[in-house]
Amino acid sequence: MEKPMSGSFLRNCWYVAAEAGEVTRTPLSRLLLGEPVVLYRRADGTPVALEDRCCHRRAPLSKGKVIGDRLQCGYHGFTFDASGACVAIPGQDRVPPNLGVRGYPMVERYNYLWIWMGDAAKADAARIPDFSRAADPAWTTVHDRLPIAAHYQLMVENLIDLSHLAFVHAKTIGTDDTRTVLRFDRGDDFVRVVREPIEVDTAPHNRKQGMGPRCRLEKTIDFAPPSQVVIDIRTTEVAPQKNDPVSLGITVLNACTPETESSTHYFWTSARDYQRDDKQLDAFLYKVTVEAFNEDRDMLEAQQRCIALDPGAPTVSVNADGGSVQMRRLMAELVEREQGRAAAAAH
Amino acid sequence: MEKPMSGSFLRNCWYVAAEAGEVTRTPLSRLLLGEPVVLYRRADGTPVALEDRCCHRRAPLSKGKVIGDRLQCGYHGFTFDASGACVAIPGQDRVPPNLGVRGYPMVERYNYLWIWMGDAAKADAARIPDFSRAADPAWTTVHDRLPIAAHYQLMVENLIDLSHLAFVHAKTIGTDDTRTVLRFDRGDDFVRVVREPIEVDTAPHNRKQGMGPRCRLEKTIDFAPPSQVVIDIRTTEVAPQKNDPVSLGITVLNACTPETESSTHYFWTSARDYQRDDKQLDAFLYKVTVEAFNEDRDMLEAQQRCIALDPGAPTVSVNADGGSVQMRRLMAELVEREQGRAAAAAH
Amino acid sequence: MEKPMSGSFLRNCWYVAAEAGEVTRTPLSRLLLGEPVVLYRRADGTPVALEDRCCHRRAPLSKGKVIGDRLQCGYHGFTFDASGACVAIPGQDRVPPNLGVRGYPMVERYNYLWIWMGDAAKADAARIPDFSRAADPAWTTVHDRLPIAAHYQLMVENLIDLSHLAFVHAKTIGTDDTRTVLRFDRGDDFVRVVREPIEVDTAPHNRKQGMGPRCRLEKTIDFAPPSQVVIDIRTTEVAPQKNDPVSLGITVLNACTPETESSTHYFWTSARDYQRDDKQLDAFLYKVTVEAFNEDRDMLEAQQRCIALDPGAPTVSVNADGGSVQMRRLMAELVEREQGRAAAAAH
Q: What is the CATH number of the domain that holds B170?
């Protein structure tokens, strides 16, 4: 039931398939990496991810129903267990051996459901990126999912980049980050962009948090393959005389899961460590964030349409693109290594 | 004016092109087997089927108008007789010989217009399948046409199959037919599925017809190439002492005509031999039938979308699929034979 | 920044890109010959046409803003001058040499903006076809732009042709021109269709202009490559005794600019030399013309859909098609000559 790896996507890795709350006892269909996947929960709540295509007549299983831990096709009643094995066929007592649909390893963590779409034997939950702030009781979150009609790397690139803030978000959250100093770092499985801390006058709304007149702004952006980006923003009052200066943190956790070669399920959580019970602030941050991400989406979808007109049109990279260049290079290496191995294994 | 046969469709056979009532003196455009066809009636009512593409500048003739027995193109006035021959060109007296559009043999029978899209010389009205109950004065009918965005064989398969009733139609007409015994029969030009008769308690609404407490249910499904299916359902009271037991028949006549490789014009007629003047029953049966066929359509269109994602994904067949396996095998043989002959004839 | 010429379009020639009034200080995106183009005006009003795709990350520049004479990308702020050269990159002082987007020669003339999408070195404003009546103070105009989902040559052919008037426009402006005598003339860069003048009874509304009971109708149609058509219609009273017979002229100036291989930006201006200050007549002529062109559009789009079903389906030409046959022949020669040269130059 394993399909050969193909296409341009990295497969031996974890993708966010859904927000935890999206998946229930009613099957949910979702196209991931171009493949139809059905998601549901067992009686005990464990999430299940199966190929959303019955092995009998290729009806989507998501049109069926969950019975106990099993999923029954809505067309002719073929029934599958949580591993994807076919366990019942109406009208006959015997089920042919090895009949079933593909099952995908799935882990629920940090309020997300993570799916492994490559070689199941290699699935290792320890490799799920650290999204702990999405579920840390010391942090308060707002979160959502946004469909974007653009290649997932366009969104990853957007998240890694600071230079677009002054332009795309000029009317909302835009700040001129084009003259700040960036450091880029890269390892085997990460790219990091660190903006040199800057000292600025404290914004009025932060003065209300008890912050002094000057503050230090820090921003770190961590990319983890294949498509996760954690943005950490910290504002700390400059008060050398204080032992415990006021310090406010916002962490935005992003997962850009490919739907197809030209569309993305974009999952985001914005977590903060201050005013944690302020529901009005929740609503405000949700609204501001959605507005900003819609500005990004609007630009990315225009960019995607422009690329589609002439997929071979060249690009150039400049200083500010250090993070995105590293990200693309790292991903290309990982895909090449994976597909090279797969090709070698096929011999 | 004959085009070479191509594609996966059987061509030397009859397809339903329209319900008789759909075609009038106003031209009607219909895509059949991927080809544009225009349908209209001559002054005496005889139906005509022509290529819906003017030989001059490829405008659809269906945008023109019928004058006497002829069809005049709405763009530049080229005029064609009922055989497709061009008979008039505005602005000149001479019409080049052999100029025209393709004409298709067409027969009106059983309230349907049947079209032959292969070699016209082979068109033989005797090969039109027996849909007589659609026009038998001893039977009353309701009927309609339903567009389905799925390959026609998915609908044929659905009609031949009993095992989906309990699932797709669970909320409407569903009965559990998954444990009944089926016999399959096949000849050179038919597939037959016979459900072993079963004896059941008479349903309350049939008791009202004067039926005794027990009845016998019979169901026969006849497939005729390329895409006609006749379903015969008979309910007879079990009354050995009676000479003339109450017996109620419903025959559903189905024609699944390919529009394209992934869409179908589905024509159905439901005929009955009881309560024949009951208009309320007409309305009820129409409503119930449309509801059920829309349930099928919904499933078939989902199935088609799933197939389109990965056209090579495999299927498996089980006991209940005997009829559909035979249907696919018979059609593959007929298409292969036809195309083999066509290829041989081309040498 | 020059791309190799390709596709079926003639490139070394002028196309209408926009009506003059459409282009302002706010960038306008337009797809021309399948290429994304952004149009805007410099501070002094000069129109500019650039590739609508940033060289950085392929965002459309039309989503950016005009600053002085320059266009700034709305994604990361790359800025281009009116030639397409990149002159500023946020976050760095240096701009790499030769960085930029393609700039297209553009000329504003006759209330239209003309673009040259081939070899810029060959752009010669003297080759812009004579559309002077669209901006002649002695003539009054109504004009508009109509998007048509059909290949531009279908519309050119429609404009050159008189034989469709009696059919497509039977309910509006249709006159039976199918029996009139046509003369065709062709040179290296034009095709001309002249209808032999005919003498008819003066129409009532022309009597009101002081015209006598009989008048002479003249019609000349001039095609200029790649896709301009000027239709000149003159009605003159037959009054040999008068030195200055009443004579009314209408000139329709048409430009059919390819958007893609199957869609067209159709620009038209209807100019007249009589009742020049009659606003009610303006409104009437605008309405009548739009109605007639929508009838054409409806037919052309049906024709395009029909062609798309079987692009290889043949056509035939008859006497009345003399103009369109010459037009297609001339265009094929020009394209072949241009692409032959381009191919030779590549060696």
A: 3.90.380.10
**Residues A299-332, buried b or exposed e (16+ Cβ, 10 A)?**
bbbbbbebbebeeeeeeeebebbbbbbbbbebbe
Closest residue in A to B296 (Cα–Cα): A75
Q: Does A65 share its domain with A32?
A: yes
Closest CA to B237 of B203, B188, B277, B286: B203
B137 and B117 in a common domain: no
Q: Which residues pair with B227 in a beta bridge?
A: none
In this structure, the answer to whether residues C42 and C56 fall within a common structural domain is: yes
- For chain C, the helix, strand and coil percentages under 3-state DSSP, each to the nearest 5: 25, 35, 40
pTM of the model as a whole: 0.93
Tracing tokens 């004839």 back to the chain, one arrives at B345
The verdict on A308 and A170 lying in the same domain is: yes
CB-based contact, C303 to chain B, within 8 Å? yes
**ipTM > 0.90, yes or no:** yes
* C223 vs C185: CA distance, rounded Å: 10
Whether C115 contacts chain A with CB within 8 A: no
Q: How far apart are CA C176 and CA C192, in angstroms?
A: 20
Rg of chain B (C-alpha set): 23
Q: Give the pLDDT of chain B (347 residues) as one tens digit per residue.
A: 334 344 689 999 999 999 999 999 999 999 999 999 999 999 999 999 999 999 999 999 999 999 999 999 999 999 999 999 999 999 889 999 999 999 999 999 999 999 999 999 999 999 999 999 999 999 999 999 999 999 999 999 999 999 999 899 988 776 777 778 899 999 999 999 999 999 988 888 778 778 889 999 999 999 999 999 999 999 999 998 888 899 999 999 999 999 999 999 999 999 999 999 999 999 999 999 999 999 999 999 999 999 999 999 999 999 899 999 999 999 999 999 999 877 777 66
B34–chain C Cβ distance below 8 A for any pair? yes
CB contact under 8 A, C309 and B34: yes
Q: How far is B113 from chain A (nearest CA, A)?
A: 32
CB spacing of C302 vs B63 below 8 angstroms:
yes
Q: Which chains touch C (3 or more CB pairs under 8 A)?
A: A, B
Min Cα distance C212 → chain B (Å) is: 30
Beta-bridged to residue C248, according to DSSP, are C235
Q: Sheet with B28-32: list strands edge to edge.
A: B28-32, B35-41, B47-51, B103-104
What is the DSSP-derived secondary structure letter of residue C186? Answer: E
Last-in-domain residue among B64, B99, B127: B127
B contacts of C301 (beta carbons < 8 Å): none
Distances in Å between the Cα of B224 and the Cα atoms of A330, B8, B236, B324 are 59, 17, 26, 12
Which member of C161, C306, C317 has the closest CB to residue B58?
A: C306
Nearest CB partner across the interface for B59, out of C178, C299, C318:
C299
Which position has the token pair 């690009």? A315
The answer to whether residue A91 neighbours chain B at the CB level (below 8 Å) is yes
Q: Are A266 and C20 in contact (CB under 8 A)?
A: no
CA distance B334 to B318: 23
Last residue in a domain, options A95, A127, A159? A127
Q: Closest CB to A58: pick one of B164, B306, B318.
A: B306
For residue B191, count other CB atoms closer than 10 A to its CB. Answer: 26
